[in-house]
Amino acid sequence: MKKILILFAHPTFEKSRANLTLVDHIKDLEGVTFHDLYERYPDFHIDVKREQELLDQHDVIIWHHPFYWYSCPPLMKQWIDMVLEYDWAYGPQGKALISKTCINVITTGGSKDLYCSEGTNSFTVNQFLRPFEQTANLCGMEYFPPFAVMGTHTLSNDQLTQHGKEYAKLIDLFQNDLKITAAEGCFFTNNIPQLKQN
Q1: End-to-end CA distance of the chain
Q2: Which of 108, 100, 105, 111 lies closest to 170 in space, CA to CA?
Q3: CA distance 160 to 155
């Protein structure tokens, strides 16, 4: 069974109904390490070596965060800047992350119809996440389409619970070696239970 590292970054986690529900469904799963960056580094002093050791110990890396101004909260960006060092994560000697799996799990206040060429945000979530995709590519990781829970302010508790169950299903699929060819389209299409392993 593959080991999953969830790098979670939410500066106001206790106020996020959506993320509280998602995290509640996955934080205690076997083989999952839930790593709350804001809890661990409230002073933003990231222990780079410790973080690299965590990455070494896991097969699947999940960047779980709210969608802040079309990106991630500042501590996650700092984590990427500091932890993914030249000649460790990328560069001539940077081979530590090769063949690991990577995915963004995000929540957005805006609904899916706002994230398209006709919507007020002009671009899709996948397009906004291209820097994460390229970061994964540069480090030799296999990047999957994002799991996005969108329009969170209008979702009922039952709908959020369903998303939490889908998140847990996604974890299970990754633990059992989900292949990129089985992940057609975006994970926010609510097709996770139907995904099949290759």
Answers
A1: 16
A2: 105
A3: 6
Q: What is the pLDDT of residues 104-162, one digit of tens each?
A: 999 999 998 999 889 899 999 999 999 999 999 999 999 999 999 999 999 999 999 99
Nearest to 4 by CA among 57, 63, 60: 60
The strand pair at 60-66 and 4-8 is best described as parallel
Annotate 30-82 with DSSP letters as a single string: TTEEEEEHHHH-TT----HHHHHHHHHT-SEEEEEEE-BTTB--HHHHHHHHH
Domains of the chain: 4-196 (3.40.50.360)
* Total-model pTM: 0.91
Identify whether the C-beta of residue 68 lies closer than 8 Å to the C-beta of residue 110: no
**What is the average per-residue pLDDT within 73-102?**
98
Which whole-number Å values give the CA distances from 60 to 64, 87, 156, 176, in the listed order?
A: 12, 21, 30, 11
Enumerate the β-bridge partners of residue 1. Answer: none
Residue the block writes with tokens 């057609």: 184
Across-strand partners of 90? 86
Distance CA 49, CA 100 (A): 18
The confidence score (pLDDT) of residue 177 equals 84
